[in-house]
Amino acid sequence: MTKTSDIFKEASKTGRKYLLETEAKTVCMEYKIPVTNFRLSKSDDESVKFAEEIGYPVVLKIVSPDIIHKSDVGGVMVNLRSSTDVRNAYKQIINNVKKHKPKAKIVGIMVQEMAPPSTEVIVGAVKDPQFGPAVMFGLGGIFVEVLKDVAFRVVPFTEDEAREMISEIKAYPILKGYRNTPAADIKAITNILLSVSRLVTDYPTIKEIDLNPVLVYHEGAKAVDARIVIE
Prior knowledge:
Dna Ligase, domain 1; 2 domains
């Protein structure tokens, strides 16, 4: 039995509608979707130990089944560059959460690498009542929010269709390299789209996937945040 099926079983057993980010990223890893290096910590000492294993700078995020939007409750601290930063951030996050959501169950704190900035894309999946699961792709930030510049494909699709999907968005020239921005790794994006397609095909209970942002480099890519909603 795979880790993924265990994770989905556990979530539905506890009546949760979405996976914890640590679980979502574990599922991604099993489906060969590259994610930022992370560990789940239960104390400030452990957070420092993990930060040193991962390498500074790091990000700390609250992990709780009762908190979906971590930033809204002060549950995220970024660009931590020393053990002192990490200790302070750990305590600060716990305090913030207790203040905003005193009843929230705290599973732990996720320590993750702070991925170097690059071109941001968004990869998602939604379950259409008529067509079934469809995968979405677009450039991150303003391109998604304001311009709604995205492409969709009903699953399953081929590698050629995934490439076609990438080239369909208006912002595609940015991915091909623009002025002093190097070209993004289109093959890495294609592989992520195919993996997401496989994941939603294998697990029909998935209602929504949101990998946002995915940082795409000249070589390779990394999902910084991962959210999976289940029925």
